[in-house]
Prior knowledge:
Blueprint: H1 2-11, H2 15-19, H3 25-33, E1 37-43, E2 49-59, E3 66-75, H4 84-99, E4 103-106, H5 113-122
Parallel strand pairs: 3-4
Antiparallel strand pairs: 1-2, 2-3
Amino acid sequence: MRSVLQLYGQAFEDPHSYGSAPPDDAYLQDLLARDDFVQVAAFAGTGEVIGALSAYVLPKFEQARSEIYIYDLAVAATHRRKGVAQALIGWLQDHARDIGAWVIYVQADYGDDPAIALYTKLGTREDVMHFDIEPADK
């Protein structure tokens, strides 16, 4: 999991967010044991993490069903355009079927043309706006 965090920091050019305050082993073990968190990684023959996908299973309220939100997906620069991301999403599609999730969704930022091309190939595009709302002051 620590290698996954390092990969995300490099791929998203944000090593501070993914490395400045890493969770301890107990936190990571608890997270990985949860049914509502999904972590998948792809490895090179050397054991190096070359791709990773982190997702959340979200139980819905309007019907007795769940959906899966891909929160992070990255592939090491040296391994891109080789089907790694598609394989990770393929594994998640199988997992979604196995747990009865009705849809998987992901967002891509404007200008991230490789991600947009991949997701367009795999799914139906919906244009929405995304807002970050700060929690109330303590």
